[in-house]
Design a protein that fits this description.
about 170 residues, alpha/beta, Leucine Aminopeptidase, subunit E, domain 1, six-stranded mixed sheet, 5 helices, binds adenosine-5-diphosphoribose
Length: about 170
């Protein structure tokens, strides 16, 4: 079972094997963490993404990390649900994102993996519920990933992720 830690900071500055990108189906980049990762990885990331696109919601695909520094072997792009009130299967799609990212990481032999808080920004998912789904999925999905880092981009997100992790400890 993986060790899970919550870290406040920028996912593009993490020293790990692979980082997860909260992308859109086109995999060509966007705003938020998608924009930050594409900016740091350079234009080859969008080229590699375009070759794999479209990525379905709840699915995940990997590209190299290109110019990311610290060097990152892989970017695992996943497309989260857009929050529409909770009655459209959003929770299942979000859980699928976390599960599929672990599956892709296992296929690549990645032993360290950092996640952003998928769907809690532009896609509007309530962050406390999203944190519970993330932690519940990651603690119940078998994986060979040894260290999972949940990135909190601000203090509020750090508190929610830490509380969610404490609930399952
Ligand atoms: N490092 C870590 N976390 C970050 C960073 C960063 N550099 N930048 C933003 N975040 C956090 C946000 O604060 C939020 O908690 O990532 C979380 C996800 O927010 P978004 O990036 O807006 O992603 P999402 O809500 O999944 O929306 C995805 O936005 O950028 C577009 O192309 C993307 O269409 C897709 C949509």
């Amino acid at each position: 079972m993986a060790t899970i830690e919550v870290v406040q900071g920028d996912i593009t500055e993490q020293d790990t094997d692979a980082i997860v990108n909260a992308a859109n189906e086109s995999l060509r980049g966007g705003g938020g963490v998608d924009g930050a990762i594409h900016w740091a990885a350079g234009p080859r990331l969008a080229e590699a993404g375009a070759a794999l696109a479209p990525c379905a919601r709840g699915d995940a695909v990997a590209t190299p990390g290109f110019d990311l520094d610290p060097p990152i072997r892989y970017v695992i792009h996943t497309v989260g649900p857009v929050w529409k009130g909770g009655g459209r299967g959003e929770a299942d799609v979000l859980a699928s994102c976390y599960r599929r990212c672990l599956e892709v990481a296992d296929g690549l032999g990645a032993t360290g993996l950092a996640f952003p808080a998928i769907s809690t920004g532009i896609y509007g998912y309530p962050p406390a519920e999203a944190a519970r789904i993330a932690v519940t999925t990651l603690t119940t999905t078998p994986t060979r990933v040894a260290l999972i880092r949940l990135m909190a981009y601000d203090r509020a997100a750090y508190g929610l992720l830490t509380a969610a992790l404490a609930e399952v400890a």
